[in-house]
Write a structure and sequence with these properties.
The complex is a heterodimer of chains A (118) and B (109). By secondary structure, chain A is mainly beta. Chain A contains no helices and eleven strands. In chain A, strands 2, 4, 5, 6, 9, 10 and 11 form a seven-stranded mixed beta sheet that branches. In chain A, strands 1-3-8-7 form a four-stranded antiparallel beta sheet, with no helix packed on it. Chain A starts with a strand and ends with a strand. By secondary structure, chain B is an all-beta fold. Chain B has strands at 9-12, 18-23, 35-40, 47-50, 64-69, 72-77, 86-93, 98-100, 104-108. In chain B, strands 1, 3, 4, 7, 8 and 9 form a six-stranded mixed beta sheet that branches. In chain B, strand 5 (64-69) and strand 6 (72-77) form a beta hairpin. Classes of the chains: A mainly beta (118), B mainly beta (109). At the A-B interface, strand 5 and strand 10 of A face strand 7 and strand 8 of B.
Amino acid sequence: DVQVAESGGGLVQPGGSLRLSCAASGFTFRNYWMHWVRQVPGKGLVWVSRINGAGTYTNHADSVKGRFTISRDNAKNTLYLQMNSLRVEDTAVYYCARDSDHYCTDVWGQGTTVTVFS
Amino acid sequence: QSALTQPPSASGSPGQTVTISCTGTSSDIGRYNRVSWYQQHPGKAPKLVLYEVATRPSGIPDRFSGSKSGNTASLTVSGLQTEDEADYHCSSYADNKWVFGGGTKLTVL
């Protein structure tokens, strides 16, 4: 089965850091761009970051630029999101998603919850 | 506030047809035919139901269709079934980033 599974969420105070991981299986991970998308429960989805298959190109939403860094380890079939200088407004469920090559994402994980509280 | 505007709710009876709109700008929906729609049941991950405005991924029934006019895209669900009750999110590519709507809760009465 093609799947991705996030981990690493938790509780953190403002200004703190967390690293999210996303383990991929069932497909050739290095061949796909990957994304992080977040969602406050009951609200809409928000795109966060993306990375190309080789890990040589990344871009981030303005709201996280300079604080979050997306990366990947193709040998481990794992995607990462390093989140620094966390803010209360970063509280959300974070999803890892595979790019479909059609400007959308076709495989999503179940998400991992990040809560930033003061 | 989301970049794309969707109605917060929509509803229909089983067998009926419902259309959900998604309004953006000339920088996203109006510029690119790269609109996608996602279905999300409570507590579940989003699921792709349409991409590139009107293309269905494998396994999505043809009851789901899409269109676009100007800065507005639409998702139409015909022959409503109880399992179609979910949140629907639209998305558009927009100059090296993606924007989403706030989501529409579809209720099957």
